[in-house]
Amino acid sequence: MPPGSKIKSFVEVLQTGKTDFSRVMDNLFLDPGALPEMYPKEVQELRTRGGLDRLSNRLKELLHECQSEFPGIDQWPNDQKEQVRLKLVQAIDENRRVHFFWELYSGYYESSVIVDPGDGDIIMNFQSPQRLVRYDEAKNEIHVDVSNNDPVPTS
User: Fold this and answer.
1) Would the pTM count as exceeding 0.85?
2) Alpha carbons 89 and 83: distance in angstroms, whole number
3) If residue 87 lies in a helix (H) or strand (E), which one and from where to where?
4) Cα–Cα distance between 28 and 63 in angstroms, integer?
5) Segment 39-68, tens digit of pLDDT
6) How far is CA 11 from the centre of its chain?
């Protein structure tokens, strides 16, 4: 989710599950088998362990249409980004489409849910905790923060 969204945009994202990032990724992964030829250096980065821990300038350039979401992507838990990276590499190698979604959920930390039926399309659903939604009255924007694994309250 971008750092600040107007209410109308936020409601649209809640209804569709589509952020700028998910739309860009959906378009990239329409024909994943073609990506190595179209973007050889970027795919090579993706094949590297930890290749999504911090988005490189090369990947940021490729994903420039969703640049407002880069800070949140960089802050997302690395272990989850690694699971996503591995599944994206598999999708490229097997030429399987990937569909990307975002939603709020009741969990305490961010979650990346990957649905892989074994053949056919793969679904990636990125979930942000509802507790991290805040309203900026001065800007009339809704923000969804990243937890950075803050401790769960004990009381």
Assistant:
1) yes
2) 10
3) helix 78-94
4) 9
5) 999 999 999 999 999 888 989 998 999 888
6) 18
